[in-house]
Design goal:
The complex is a heterodimer of chains A (about 180) and B (about 270). Chain A has about 180 residues and is mainly α. Chain A is about 70% helix and about 0% strand. Chain A is globular, with a radius of gyration of 18 Å. Chain A starts with a helix and ends in a 15-residue tail after the last helix. Chain B is about 35% helix and about 30% strand. In chain B, the strands form 2 sheets. Chain B has a 6-stranded antiparallel beta barrel. Chain B has a 6-stranded antiparallel β-barrel with strand order 6-7-8-11-10-9. The chains are: A mainly alpha (about 180), B alpha+beta (about 270). Chains A and B meet through α1, α3, α4, α5 and α6 of A and α1, α2 and β1 of B.
Chain lengths: ~180, ~270
C-alpha cells in the first residue's frame, strides 16, 4: 500500500512538472519547437508501455494542471486527454496487437492528429473567441504538421530509450540451429 | 446484465472529472486553485525566462549575431526617442487645451502594475493568428478587462482580454483580435481603430481619403472608449494603401518593440 502511495506521489510530481514545462517553457520557444506537445506524448507513452489505468491517472493530473493554468474553459484538457486515451486504447486493442516501434509511431501520430482536430473543434463549438473554422486556417495545418513530426521523432527516441532500459520490447527471434 | 467494476479506470476518471468540474463551477475549488497558482508562479516565470533565453539565442543565430544586436539596440533607442517625442507633442497639445480651459489637472495620473510574463498561449489548439501573453498578476492586483499593457520602453504592447484571480491574458497589438482606439500624430489628428495583421504588423483601416497621413507618422492611443489612456505609442506608419477610387485608405503600422522577447510588462490602471 505504502509503495502504491509513493508511486502516485511520484507520478503527481513528474506530471505536474511536465505540465508546467508545457505551459511556460515550451510556449516561450520559437516555432517549430513550441509545437511539441509534451503532455500528449507522455500520456501516449504511458498508455503504450504501462497500462490504461496509469495513463488515465496521468491524464487527470496533467489535465487538471493545464486547466487551472490556461484560459480555456475548465475541463477542456481533462476531457480531451481522456477522449484521446480512449481512442488510443481502442487502437491498441483492435489495430496494433504488438509492441513494436511502428506501433508506437502509428499510435503517437494518430493521437496527435486526433488531439488537434478534437481540440480545435471543441474550441470552435464552445468558445466564443474562435469564430473562424479551423480547417480554413493555414496555421492549424502547419501546427498539425509540426506536431506530427515531433510525435514521430518522440516515438523514435522514446522507443529506443525504453528498449535500452527494458527487456520487454526487445526483438525475439526463433533461430533454427544447425549442427553441421 | 454486465457488471461495472468499481475500480474501472473509465469510471474513476468520470467520477473525478465530474467532481472537479462541479467543484470548480460552484467555486469551492477556487481557494485551492489560487494557492496552487501562487505556488507555481515563480517556477512558471523561471521556465518562461529559460524558454525566452533559448528563443532569443535561436533568433540571433538565425540572423547575423552582431547585426541583430545593433538593430535591437537602435530599435530600443528609436522607441525611447519616439515615446519622448510623442510625449512632448502630447504635452504641448494638452498644455494648450488646459490653458484654454483653465484646468491644470493632468490626465496621465494613472497607477501602474508591473507583471512578469509566465506563458504564451500559442499551443496546438490555438489556431488563431498571433499570440497572447499570460502574466502573473490578476484581479487581486487591480487588473481588469481592457486595460493597456506597456513595455519597459513605454510602448503599448497590447491590452488585457481575460482576467483570473491571480493571472491575466493580454492580446498583443499585432494580434487580429486586439483592437485599440488610436490616433495618428499628423496635422488633423486622424482617429481610428487599429488591429493586428497576421501577428506581424498592425493595421489601421477606414481612414477617410481626405486625411493626410505620411510614412513615419507616429500612431498613439486616442484614449477613447476604454481603459487605455491617451498618448501611449503604438508604432510608426510604414506603409499606406491609398487607391484614388476608394473612399477609405489603410495604414500599416510597425510596432516599435520586439513583441517576441517580452518578459516583463506594465499594466496601466487608469
Amino acid at each position: 500500500m505504502a509503495k502504491r502511495i509513493w508511486q502516485i506521489i511520484i507520478l503527481v510530481f513528474i506530471l505536474s512538472a511536465l505540465a508546467l514545462i508545457q505551459f511556460s517553457l515550451l510556449s516561450a520557444l520559437p516555432d517549430p519547437f513550441r509545437q511539441f506537445n509534451l503532455a500528449l506524448v507522455v500520456l501516449t507513452f504511458t498508455l503504450f508501455f504501462l497500462d490504461f489505468r496509469v495513463s488515465v491517472i496521468s491524464a487527470l493530473i496533467a489535465g487538471f494542471w493545464l486547466d487551472v493554468l490556461s484560459f480555456h474553459f475548465f475541463g477542456f484538457y481533462l476531457s480531451i486527454f481522456f477522449v484521446c486515451l480512449l481512442l488510443g486504447q481502442w487502437i491498441l486493442k483492435n489495430w496494433l496487437t504488438n509492441r513494436s516501434l511502428y506501433s508506437l509511431i502509428a499510435l503517437m501520430v494518430s493521437l496527435t492528429v486526433f488531439y488537434n482536430i478534437l481540440a480545435a473543434t471543441t474550441l470552435y463549438l464552445f468558445s466564443a473567441d474562435y469564430n473562424t473554422f479551423f480547417g480554413a486556417q493555414s496555421s492549424f495545418w502547419l501546427t498539425l504538421f509540426y506536431q506530427s513530426v515531433w510525435s514521430f521523432l518522440a516515438a523514435l527516441i522514446l522507443f529506443n530509450l525504453a528498449a535500452l532500459v527494458s527487456k520487454r520490447i526487445k526483438p525475439f527471434f526463433l533461430e533454427k540451429k544447425s549442427f553441421i | 446484465m454486465r457488471k461495472i467494476k468499481k475500480n474501472n479506470p473509465i469510471l474513476i476518471f468520470l467520477v473525478v472529472f465530474g467532481l472537479l468540474v462541479f467543484l470548480h463551477g460552484v467555486g469551492v475549488l477556487r481557494p485551492l486553485e489560487i494557492l496552487v497558482l501562487n505556488a507555481v508562479k515563480p517556477i512558471s516565470g523561471q521556465f518562461y525566462k529559460w524558454g525566452n533565453i533559448f528563443s532569443r539565442s535561436y533568433q540571433d543565430r538565425e540572423s547575423q549575431a552582431s547585426l541583430s544586436a545593433r538593430v535591437e539596440q537602435l530599435t530600443k533607442e528609436i522607441a525611447v526617442l519616439t515615446v519622448a517625442n510623442s510625449g512632448q507633442k502630447e504635452l504641448i497639445e494638452e498644455n494648450k487645451k488646459l490653458r484654454n480651459q483653465l484646468k491644470f489637472l493632468s490626465d496621465n495620473s494613472f497607477k501602474a502594475v508591473a507583471a512578469a510574463v509566465i506563458a504564451r498561449e500559442s499551443i496546438a489548439e490555438d489556431t488563431e493568428e498571433g499570440q497572447d501573453l499570460i502574466i502573473n498578476k490578476g484581479a487581486h492586483d487591480g487588473i481588469s478587462l481592457g486595460q493597456g499593457a506597456v513595455s519597459d520602453e513605454g510602448v503599448i504592447i497590447g491590452k488585457v482580454i481575460e482576467v483570473k484571480e491571480t493571472s491575466a491574458k493580454i492580446c498583443l497589438t499585432t494580434s487580429p483580435e486586439c483592437k485599440l482606439a488610436a490616433a495618428i500624430q499628423n496635422q488633423t489628428r486622424t482617429q481610428g481603430i487599429t488591429d493586428g495583421d497576421l501577428g506581424l504588423t498592425i493595421k489601421m483601416n477606414y481612414i477617410p481619403q481626405l486625411e493626410k497621413i505620411a510614412v513615419g507618422d507616429t500612431v498613439i492611443t486616442s484614449g477613447l472608449g476604454g481603459n487605455i489612456p491617451r498618448g501611449l505609442v503604438i508604432g510608426k506608419v510604414i506603409d499606406i494603401r491609398n487607391e484614388s477610387n476608394e473612399v477609405w485608405q489603410d495604414a500599416t503600422i510597425e510596432p516599435l518593440v520586439n513583441l517576441n522577447n517580452l518578459t516583463v510588462v506594465t499594466i496601466i490602471i487608469p
